[in-house]
Specification:
Layout: H1 4-11, E1 14-16, H2 28-32, E2 38-39, E3 48-49, E4 69-71
Antiparallel strand pairs: 1-4, 2-3
The structure holds iron/sulfur cluster (SF4) (2 copies).
C-alpha cells in the first residue's frame, strides 16, 4: 500500500518550465530556496529542481516573475 504522506510530499515538488524559463541572471527562484534545492551548474544553464532535496515549502513559486516555477500536478507513483 502506498504511503499517503509520501505521495503528498512528492506532488508538492515544483518544476521549472523549459518553455517559460528565461535563464535570468540571477535566478530569483534559486536564491529563494533556503535548502539549495534549485541547481544551476553553469551560469547560462536553465536551473532545475533536485526533487530528492525538496521539502515542498513552495517558497520558490512566487519568486519567478515569468511563472516558470510550477507544481507538477501529476507525479509518478514510486514503489
Ligand atoms: S526559473 Fe524564473 S527566475 Fe529562474 S531563471 Fe527561470 S525564469 Fe528566471
Ligand atoms: S519548494 Fe522549497 S525546498 Fe523545494 S525548491 Fe522550492 S523553495 Fe526549495
Amino acid at each position: 500500500m502506498m504511503p499517503i504522506v509520501k505521495h503528498i510530499v512528492q506532488s508538492a515538488v515544483p518544476a521549472i518550465s523549459r518553455v517559460l524559463c528565461r535563464r535570468c541572471q540571477p535566478c530569483e527562484a534559486l536564491l529563494a530556496c533556503e535548502h539549495k534545492t534549485i541547481i544551476r551548474i553553469e551560469p547560462e544553464d536553465m536551473p532545475w529542481v533536485d526533487a530528492s532535496r525538496c521539502f515542498g515549502c513552495r517558497a520558490c513559486l512566487a519568486t519567478c516573475r515569468y511563472g516558470a516555477v510550477h507544481i507538477v500536478k501529476e507525479c509518478p507513483q514510486k514503489g
